[in-house]
């Protein structure tokens, strides 16, 4: 009879899978808690100590590190000497291995975990069995992911050898154990509290092949980490496949709408930065107000919502060419309306895909690593530094503008009125040019900047940006402060009766 060895920490689906193997005539060898679970569920199990002739010891630290296990996994069935060696020692070949590992990464992610607790979650026998089985994948199935159980059962029923599947599963094992070892190296190599890891493994799996990269001559694919949040959670409902640039814009869209978990917001994204963003009482009103920011630039955009998209919202977008619509949920009647546009991509993505704690920017030959930017407001650090304080209406718009400018690429200036952007200056080489562009864009689209508020993602290095805003009639400004010329900048605001709030917190995005 074929023999399977099952030893899992994550027991999702394992009882049903073991039963299916038994039904197909397999013997099951198992260890520790897995063996007990299977026996309790009525699945016949051969205990591991009956295979090795040696009891588990040291609280289970040593149970599978034995030739009866590894010889049975590594023996090549086409080499007679290997098979004779097994027979001489009374070992039975193992044809399928199901192993997943102690939760080391989950353990070290807990607050206040001790080094001793972390060390106890370093799995030794599990990775060893996985690697032995994966090396001999020509004849051994090796599974590390419960999602693969149905595929293997299908392959066993097909009786076609499943060589390609076994190779794929072996590759998955080596990627998994590599990431596991990398997490341990990173943990042990980090000695000072609060420092970034000494070693930074990046276990990435190809999630989605792409037609091309930023340009047609560049190969591309989307790779994802093992984190269970973020872009890997996207579900495409309609349209042709997402492009490289679409996915970059999706990431920018998620950042732009993140500051508002409880109020409907719409962000319209071009080249990873908003060209329109607004709050509203509903998705459709937020969209209409965001579109009004800059309808010219909205052509060919990615449009993101933090709330359900209904039919009224879908119909409001009918006359605009849009690349992607993304929302946490799209209603069926809205999807039917979107499906009338064959080139429109419609994507559902959970509302809070926070993803990993670190952010990476590529440089030639390496990576720059930083904490991921997350918008947060601590108004206790905000100070009014001008003679005039903002009015109640200005405070409302300043709060909106400060949140909205966080999604704009620097140098970033955003003008707002009634919790909607009316002009955005992004990606400029000087802050005064960003101020000029924001005013220019507002007027170009029929918005009068008179009486609006302004947010700057970083400090004004000179008073000229404030002078540009004052000339347009801006009445209140919010910015981090911290320039050596803050006194001159504040004096310029006072000279034009502009209220200025300094947040003490920069949210610059290069």
- What structural class is derived from the secondary structure elements? alpha/beta
Helix content: 25-40%
Side by side, the strands of the main sheet go 8-13-12-11-9-10
For the biggest sheet, the summary is: 6 strands, mixed
Distance between the termini: 62 Å
Uncertain runs: none
What does it look like?
It contains 18 helices and 21 strands. It is an alpha/beta fold. The chain has 3 domains: 187 residues, 3-Layer(aba) Sandwich (Rossmann fold); 143 residues, Cytidine Deaminase, domain 2 (3-Layer(aba) Sandwich), CATH 3.40.140; 124 residues, AICAR transformylase, duplication domain (Cytidine Deaminase, domain 2). Strands 8-13-12-11-9-10 form a 6-stranded mixed beta sheet. A 6-stranded mixed beta sheet has the order 16-21-20-19-17-18, sandwiched between helices. It has a 5-stranded parallel beta sheet with strand order 3-2-1-4-5, sandwiched between helices. Strand 14 and strand 15 form a beta hairpin. It is elongated, with a radius of gyration of 29 Å.
List strands and helices in order, with pairings.
Elements: E1 3-8, H1 14-23, E2 27-30, H2 32-40, E3 46-47, H3 48-52, H4 67-74, H5 80-89, E4 96-100, H6 104-108, H7 115-120, H8 125-135, E5 141-143, H9 149-158, H10 163-189, E6 205-210, E7 220-224, E8 235-238, H11 244-257, E9 265-270, E10 273-279, H12 283-293, E11 301-305, H13 311-316, E12 322-327, H14 332-338, E13 345-348, E14 358-363, E15 366-371, E16 383-384, H15 392-405, E17 413-417, E18 420-425, H16 431-444, E19 453-456, H17 464-472, E20 476-479, H18 486-495, E21 499-502
Parallel strand pairs: 1-2, 1-4, 2-3, 4-5, 11-12, 12-13, 19-20, 20-21
Antiparallel strand pairs: 6-7, 8-13, 9-10, 9-11, 14-15, 16-21, 17-18, 17-19
Helix pairs in contact: 4-8, 8-10, 16-17
């Amino acid at each position: 009879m074929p023999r399977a060895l099952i030893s899992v920490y994550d027991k999702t689906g394992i009882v049903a899978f073991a039963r299916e193997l038994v039904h197909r005539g397999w013997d099951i060898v198992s260890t520790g808690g897995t063996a007990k679970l299977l026996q309790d569920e009525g699945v016949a199990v051969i205990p591991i100590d009956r295979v090795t002739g040696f009891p588990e010891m040291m609280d289970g630290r040593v149970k599978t590190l034995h030739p009866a296990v590894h010889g049975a996994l590594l023996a090549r069935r086409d080499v007679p000497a290997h098979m004779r060696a097994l027979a001489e020692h009374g070992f039975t070949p193992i044809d399928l291995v199901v192993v997943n590992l102690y939760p080391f990464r989950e353990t070290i992610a807990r607050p206040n975990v001790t080094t001793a607790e972390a060390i106890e979650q370093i799995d030794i026998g599990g990775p060893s069995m996985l690697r032995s089985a994966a090396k001999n994948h020509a004849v051994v199935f090796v599974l590390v992911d419960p999602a693969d159980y149905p595929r293997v059962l299908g392959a066993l029923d097909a009786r076609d050898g499943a060589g390609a599947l076994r190779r794929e599963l072996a590759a998955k094992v080596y990627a998994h154990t590599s990431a596991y070892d990398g997490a341990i190296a990173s943990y042990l190599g980090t000695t000072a509290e609060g420092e970034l890891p000494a070693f930074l493994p990046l276990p990435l799996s190809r999630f989605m092949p792409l037609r091309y990269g930023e340009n047609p001559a560049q190969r591309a694919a989307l790779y994802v980490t093992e984190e269970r949040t973020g872009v890997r959670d996207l579900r495409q409902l309609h349209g042709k496949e997402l492009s490289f640039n679409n996915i970059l814009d999706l990431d920018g869209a998620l950042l732009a709408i993140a500051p508002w978990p409880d109020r409907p917001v719409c962000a319209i994204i071009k080249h990873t930065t908003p060209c329109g963003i607004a709050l509203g009482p509903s998705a459709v009103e937020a969209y209409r107000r965001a579109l009004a920011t800059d309808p010219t630039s909205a052509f060919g955009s990615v449009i993101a919502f933090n709330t359900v998209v209904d039919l009224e919202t879908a119909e409001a977008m009918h006359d605009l060419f849009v690349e992607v619509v993304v929302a946490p949920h799209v209603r069926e009647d809205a999807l039917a309306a979107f499906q009338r546009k064959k080139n429109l991509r419609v994507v559902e993505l959970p509302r809070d895909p926070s993803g990993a704690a670190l952010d990476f920017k590529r440089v030639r030959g390496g990576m720059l690593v930083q904490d991921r930017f997350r918008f947060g407001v601590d108004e206790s650090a905000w100070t009014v530094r001008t003679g005039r304080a903002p009015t109640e209406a200005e405070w409302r718009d300043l709060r909106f503008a400060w949140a909205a400018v966080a999604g704009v690429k620097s140098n970033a200036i955003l003008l707002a009125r009634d919790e909607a952007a009316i002009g955005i200056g992004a990606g400029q080489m000087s802050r005064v040019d960003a101020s000029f562009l924001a005013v220019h864009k507002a007027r170009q689209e029929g918005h009068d900047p008179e009486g609006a508020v302004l947010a700057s993602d970083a400090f004004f290095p000179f008073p000229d940006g404030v002078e540009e805003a004052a000339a347009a009639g801006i009445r209140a400004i919010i910015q981090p402060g911290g320039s050596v010329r803050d006194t001159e900048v504040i004096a310029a605001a006072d000279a034009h009766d502009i209220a200025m709030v300094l947040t003490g917190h920069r949210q610059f995005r290069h």
